[in-house]
Amino acid sequence: MSGYFYSHRMQLVDSFGRVARKLRLSVTDRCNFKCDFCMPLKPTWIPSSEILTFDEISRVVKILASMGVSKIRLTGGEPLVRREIEKCVKILKKVPGVETISMTTNGYFLDEKAAALKESGLDSVTISLHSLKPERYEQIVGRKDAFSKVLSGIKRAQAVGLSPVKLNCVVIRGCNDDEILDFVELGRETGLVVRFIEYMPFDGKNMWNPDRLVTGAEIISKIEEKYRIERLPREHGSTSLTYRIIDGSGTLINIITTMSQPFCRDCDRIRLSADGKIVPCLFSRDDYDVKKLLRNNASDEEIADFIRSAFMKKFAGVETLLKNGEVEPLIRPMHTIGG
Ligand code: SAM
Ligand code: SF4
To answer: What pTM does this model have?
Structure first.
C-alpha cells in the first residue's frame, strides 16, 4: 500500500481529538537579528550536520500531507538566511496535498528574495516589524541597517503579489506599546494586515515578566480610543482574533492573545524544528526526534506511525499551563522553534 493511501485514511489526531492541518516548519535556528525578546545573548546553535536537508524536510512534509496537513508556514530563526530557501519552497509546493505555503520573516532579505520566492510558489508572507520608529526598531532587533531594508522588503512583497502581506508586531509594555494606533494607521494606509502579538515567555534574555505583557484586551481598548471596530468570526484553528475597522477601508487587525486568551481547544498545528524534532506545541516541553528515523532508513509507514504517536501526546495547551501557573520563561528560546 502506498504511503499516501496508508496514511490518508488516518488523519493526524491527538488525544483531545484535535486534528493537525497546519505545519510550522523551522528551517534554521540561525538569524541575522538579535531581537531582545527572542535571541539569547549567547545562543547555542544547532550544528549544521543536524539541520534537516531539503530532501529530509520534503519527506516529512509528504508524510504529513498524506495525513491531511495542508498549510505550511516556514519560520526560523530567520528562514531567509537558509541558503536557497526558494528551492525548498519549490519542492514543498509540489507535494501532493500541500495547498499553501507561507513564511514568517524579519524581512531583511525580502527585497532581494521576494520575486524568487513568489515564483517558487510562496503564497503569502508575514513580516515582523515591531516599531515604526527607525532608531527604536533597530535597537529592538539589534541591527543598525535594518529599518529601511525591511520597509523595502515589505513593499517588494506587495509588488510581486505575495498575498496577504501581514505585519507581526510583538507588543511590549514600556517598549513599543505607544505605537499601537500608528500601526493601525499604517494598516489603513497600505492594506497590510497588522497582527499585534502578546509577548510570550520565550525570550532568550529572560526579560519577560507579566508586567511587560500588554494583553489583547488592552490593545483593543487602545484601538477603540480612535476607531470603531467590529470583531469577525474566528476561523477554526486560528490563533488570532480578527477585527475590522468600521470606516469603509476594510482594514483588518489581528490580535494574537496567546497569553491572555489562548485558543488551544481547536488548535490544528504541529511543529517541526530545524533539527528534525516534532514539537507538538510551542509550549510543549517534549519533542520527538524524527531525524533519527529519517537517517536510519525507516519506511514512510514507520515515520508516519512515529509522528502519529508523538502527536497523540500533544498536551492540552498553554490554557492549562496558565491556569496552573506553570508557564516559566525559557521553555525553549523562540529562535529554535519559530513563533
Ligand atoms: N525570524 C522571523 C521573524 O522574526 O519574523 C521568524 C521567526 S520568529 C521566532 C517568529 C515570530 O515570533 C516573529 O513574528 C517574532 O516577532 C515572534 N516572537 C519572537 N519572540 C517572541 C516572544 N517572546 N513573544 C511573542 N512573539 C515573539
Ligand atoms: Fe531573529 Fe525572528 Fe528571533 Fe528576531 S524574532 S531574533 S528576527 S528569529
So the answer is: 0.94
